[in-house]
Request: fold
Amino acid sequence: VQLVESGGGLAHTGGSLKLSCVTSGLHFGNYAMGWFRQAPGKEREFVAAITYTGSTTYYLDSVKGRFTMSRDNAKNTLYLQMDSLRPEDTALYYCSSEALGLSGQGTQVTVSS
Reply:
């Protein structure tokens, strides 16, 4: 089983990035999925989650209205569209299946002020 994130990078405040998480080796469409992040010196933080059908999403309060999580079950891929980025969004972002206890290696997002 693999979860491979991509799409991170450097953005300015107010900018946008779109993260992807390509999965393999699991029945992707059967699982709710989540995005988490961890900034240096801080604990892991929930960012967003999506049901297995993609019909319902949940967000950390501070990213509501700025981040949009989606999935394409035909492509076994998860997405996180991040708009209106802020310096406090700087962190290592990784996708996760809590049910399987699996996470990817993460992709770094850095937002400059």
